[in-house]
Amino acid sequence: EEALIQSYQNIMGLGFFETPLPMPRMEPNPETGDVDITFEVKEKQTGSFSFGTSIGGWGGLSGFLGFDHPNLFGMAKSGHLRWEYGRFSNIFEASYTDPALLGSRVSGSISLFNTNNSYNRLFRFSEGEQRRTGLGLRFGVPFPLDRRFSRVFLGYTISRNEYRNFEGTEGSIFNLPEALQSTVSLGLVRQTLNSPLFPTSGSRQELEASFTGGLLGGDGEYQKYKAS
Question: pTM of the full predicted structure?
Answer without folding.
Answer: 0.77
